[in-house]
Structure formats: C-alpha cells, structure tokens
Fold:
Amino acid sequence: MSFAWDISIKNIKRKPFRSVMMGLISMLLSITVFLGSFAVISLKRGLEGYKARLGSDIVVIPSSAKGHGSVDDIYLQGITGNYYMPQNIIDKVSAINGIETVSRQFFLTSAKASCCSQRVQITGFDPDTDISVLPWIKDEYNGSIGEDDIIIGSEVSMPDNGILKFYGRNYNVKAQLDRTGTGLDNGVYANMSTVRRMAESASGLSASPSFDGVDINTAASALFIKVKEGYDIDEVSDDINIHITKVQAQTAKSMVSHISDGLEGISGMIGILAVVIWILSVVLLIVVFALLSNERKKEFGVLRVMGASNRMLSGIMSIEAAIISLCGAVTGLGISFVPIAEFSGGMREKLELPFLSPEPLTILLLCLGTLIISGTASVLTAFFTARRIAARETGLLLREET
Amino acid sequence: MEIRADGISKKFFRKGRGTNYFTAVEPTDFTLYSNKLTGIMGRSGSGKTTLINMLSGLLVPSEGKVYLGNCDIYEVSDIERSQLRCSHIGVIPQGYTGLQSLTVLENILAPSRICGGEDRTEKAMELMDKMGITHLAQVYSNELSGGEQRRMSIARALINSPHIIIADEPTSDLDEENTVLIMGVLREMADTGAAVLMVTHDKQAAGYADAILTMDNGRLIT
Structure:
C-alpha cells in the first residue's frame, strides 16, 4: 500500500469525530441528490404511465357522469361510478366522421356489502376492440380473458384461493397488474360479457346500483375512440360535443397536458429544492474543509519537511475525502430507501398525482450517479483545499503552528 | 555534499499601518560544510529559523540562490525539490512534530516511504535503539513526552541517511540527559561525513559545535 493510502486510512481511523462529521455532510448530500432525483423521475414516469395507458385519442362519457368529476378525473384518477350511455347514443358517436375504432367500457362499482369481497371499480372491456386496457395488462398477463375471469389492480387484495365474489358470484383472478400510481390500481377488469352478467346479478340485489332505463346488454359507460389517420383529433372531439347531446368528449392529449402541467410544476419545485440543498451541502463541505485545513497546517508542514510534494498532499486529502464521502454517500443511500415507500404513497394521495417508482435498473444507475456526484464534490473540495494550503510556504506553515 | 547560499534574503509582508514589508534575513552568503557541526545562535526574532528554512528548501528566498551541490534548489519543480529534500536533507523542525495518526515506528519510517525507496525497518530499529525509544515503537506520537517526541523527530530525520542535517532548536525544553543524547547523535553524524546545522539557544548544546555563528537583526555574523 502506498504511503498516501496508508496515512489516509490511518488519519480516518485516528480522527473519528472529524471523519464522522465529514461523512454526515456527504450523507446529507447523497440523500438530497438521490431523493430529489427519485421524486422527479417518479413523477415523470407516472406521467408516461398515463400516456401509455390512455391508448385512445378521445374518451367519451355520458353527461350524467359529471357529478362524478371531469373526464380526466374519471378516467385517470379512477373516480368512476355507475353511469351509462344507451346504444343509440353510441351509434351516433360511432357515425361521426374521422373515427376509426370505438371501444366500449362498462363500469360497475361493487357494493360494500356481504355480496361482495371488496368495494372496487369494475371495468368491462371488449378484448376485440380494446385500445386502453389490454396494452397495459399484457405485460402481466398474456392469456385470454374468458368468462368469469378477472384481472385485478395492484391495490386490490389478492385472495388466497384466487377467487373474488361480486354480487353473489365467484370470479377467478387471472393476474394482478403492476402498480400505476393512480386510482386505476383499485380496479378490477373483465371482458364485457362477464361484467354485464355481474350487472345482471347486481340488479336483483338491494345493495345494487340503479339500472333504471338502462339496457345492460348494449349500454356502455365510456367510449374510447381512435381517430383515423389524417383527421384532426381536436376537431373530431369538437364534432362529438357539438352534434351529440348527453355526452362529453375530451381528447387524451388535453388530459395528459393538464396533468403534465401540474407535474412539471411540482417536479420543477422538487428539482429546485434539491439543487438548493445540494448547493448548501457543497458550501458546508467547503467550510468544513477550510476549517479542517487550518487544523491540519502543522501536519502538512511536517509532511513537506519529510519530502512530500504538494501533489502528494493533495492526494492524501483527496483519498481521505473519497473514502469518507463514499461511506457517507452509501449510508445516505441506505437511509433514502427507508422513506421511499411511504413517500411514494404520500405523494400520490396528498397531491393526487401519479408517482411511479423507477425500474430497478434506473434506481441502480441513480445510486451510482449519487455516489459519483457526492464523491466528486468531496474530492474536488478536498483537492482544492489541499492546493490552497500547499500554496503557502512550508516554512510559514510550520511557524504558524509551532 | 554541501549547501551554499548566495546572497539570500527574506522579506515578509506585514498587514497594518506603516511599512508593509520587514526584512527577516538581510542578504547573506553562507556555506554549510561536510564533517562539520555548525551552530547558529541569536535572540528570538533575529531570523535564525527563516535562514535555515530557506537553506532546507522550505521557504523561497526573496532574493539570492541556494545550491545543493550544483543544483539551485529553487529553480527546480516542487516534485524535484521535494525529492532532493527527501534524499539529501534531514530536517528536525522546532517543536513537537509527530504525525498523530502514526505510531513512533511509522513516523520514523515515513520519510523513507515518501521517498519510495527500500524498506528501512531495520535502520529504523537501529535509530530507535540509539535514541532509547525502542520500547515506544508501537505507541502513537501524541502519547509521547517532549523528550521522546524530539528523539523520534531526530530518528525520523536520519532514516534516509541524509548528507545534510538541519535542526531547529533540537534541545529546547529538554533535560541534560536528553540534551547529551541528542547532541551526541548530531556530533556523530558530523563526524561520519554529514554537514550539520543547528539553531540553538542552549550553551551546553553549542559546546558540541565546530563553529558558532551569530544572527542579529537578520544579519549573520561569523
């Protein structure tokens, strides 16, 4: 082992208070960098998830759904309810110029009663025309969704026997989806005929939703529309809103941009906050190193007397800083992981924003980046502090301290 | 090997009112010869330490040159000058200068490890034996007494077998027994070929020198 490495390690061991203080600053730096980046990436990922899962160009719901919130609340936040469009309205929408495909969905909210295992939003979709549910469940489940089969969201409790009961009938859970960070995680998904039969079972029960005047076999709660190539999505949406009463249409783009604006504001704030704390940590590092440099003038002077060059002194300081900051940064990363689960849930619930944790590979890269940033900041600060001391003449360094 | 100073002087900048510079060492010519133990005496603040720091390559003179053999030590790079100091000059600084993270043995070996030469553990053991600190080999330097610290510093300065030894008040605050021990070692180094320069206020120590110079108000009086 070279002398520089040897004395650096011994300095760290023999000066535990000094080492721990420097390590704490590096820990603070790494927590800030990691959690700040984690929050920004998670919010952006949540938005990407929205975009990917929207699938369609336009979403149409009946005007009667207004009491349940706006279209984007209903669709993106999963605030759904029991509202339906009759077949004749669906036909009118389908006839609008520029529409390529129309995929129906049928919503049914299960009751919190003995008839049902859990209170969830049940969504029926048509596997033949679907453009919004299948694309994101195929990652988890690639098989067919037959009669009485259901797919459940990540927040729905998975029963041990794989069976959930709704309105007195049992359904087989085929798969549980990945977390989306939205109210969609509380949903249950089945093919259209399964959900229609579920609704039929419900209509005979006291705890059932009201289906007055609704033909369960033909009605739909929402229409997901794909616009033909060459047509303007906004114009098609406007056509629906102008020409067809009792429905409201909204483009997917507008839903996402509404959320996107909010997300960018919040992730910007988090980013600024992280940068401010980061700068403060670096300033703190510089102050600590400057104070330490005064304490270490004599040591540096003695090393120079023994024949150490300025380069060797900078090396010793840098090695010490690298070891301490890496230990601090690794500890900081460990601590950062503790609140992440709570933090993600809190963000989603309090801000009503999607918060989707990054993939493991991204987290790994984030950890590496944090280590590099924390290490580099400490090593550079140490290096330049050492250079500043070394710039003073050794004779004067010794005189100041002896 | 000799050290020669040609017209070296040192001025320091002083903050405050009035004259901004004061001269610590007036232009001085000086040669430190092999096989000689030379002493410099003088009042505090007369420029003794400044002079020997310039001769050791630790303080750049305001004017003049310092030659180690034929090499102008302030004309070469910091790395080269550090290497010259490491290989040829053993400096015993004033005060207690042990590196606190290292044991006595590690302190003594440090210059040889900085130089990157051969393993000198055996030589370190010999020096510790000569200085009477063998039993302290594994003790940390901040746990030593003043006399033990000074003996360790001298052993450390001698580890690379330097041709030139420069000692700044090597016997200050030491009892007679330690003074005799340390001066005996410095005398022996001079007798075996080294050029030894010592700053001292101690008349007993001065008695070991071949020549005594006096420093007065920055002027070296021979």
Observations:
- The helical segments of chain B are 48-56, 78-88, 104-115, 121-131, 146-158, 176-191, 203-206.
- The mean pLDDT of chain B is 90.
- The domain at 3-221 of chain B is CATH 3.40.50.300 (Rossmann fold).
